[in-house]
Amino acid sequence: MPEGSEPLLEVHDLVVRYGAATALDGVDLAVGRAEMVALVGPNGAGKTTLLDTVSGLVAPAAGRIELRGRLAQVPEGRRLFPEMTVEDNLRLGAWRVRDRRVGPVYELFPHLVELRRRKAGSLSCGEQQMVAVGRALMGQPDLLAVDELSLGLAPQIVDTLAEHLQDLNRRSGMAILLVEQNARLALDICSRAYVIEAGRIALSGPSEQLRSSPEVQAAYLGGAYEE
Predict the structure, then answer these.
(1) Fewer CB within 10 Å: N-end or C-end of the chain?
(2) How far apart (Å, rounded) are the C-alpha atoms in residues 191 and 81?
(3) pTM for the full model?
């Protein structure tokens, strides 16, 4: 975390087990206020387990989580209610706040205005991801945790969504934790990153530094990174 930055989320020596299997083994991670931080790694490395534990969906076996604000998660696979309208799906995200106005979400994603009365299950994958992000934003979080933003989406749609997240971070100062298999995307839009492998943090540091790491280039970037 940058020197002088106030920690919004701190994870200390976190251990998570599923029966006899250890999913997370002594994980340390931090996100400062207004930061964009990436967590990258292969499928099965523990990325979603870490996010679900931070979100309170999974109980840790050991370690400590300190969250100094409100967190909202955009789950992997979006998990919308397909028979409900776009607007009703959005309003479900505001269950713990008084302000249920959807206007701010429509300002971020203007395309959703014309879709607001459509059933969520009838939308394209990219449109559904906009709704999933918007639903999380309805909870007015200090930290937005996004699990696999790029999953199943065309590169052009991914780029558009990434730009929306960056704009949201710049305009509102909302911190973002981006959990991604697409390391190139994550390192491009986040200033810092953690690399998780087999339940442990293998590498961490500024994204620029990780992009130049031979290990990261070989395992996640398909060779040498090009600007």
Answers:
(1) C
(2) 33
(3) 0.89
